[in-house]
Amino acid sequence: GVTSRLTRYQQSILEFLEKLESPISAQDLYVQLRSSHQRLGLATVYRALEVLKLRGFVQSRTSVKGESQYS
Length: 71
What we know:
single chain; mainly alpha; 3 strands
């Protein structure tokens, strides 16, 4: 399928986002994922979110505070 071309981290982020009830910031997502992916870096989270957004898997909105929220 289409998701088979995603990296392991992109897949993990996509699966995590699908379980959430509300949008999350990249920083909060990073903190949540660190518990299961110790080697994950914040830059990797941002890059993965960008790829997922470009491919149409993820949507982002800017919060009142100017922070991007992903869902």
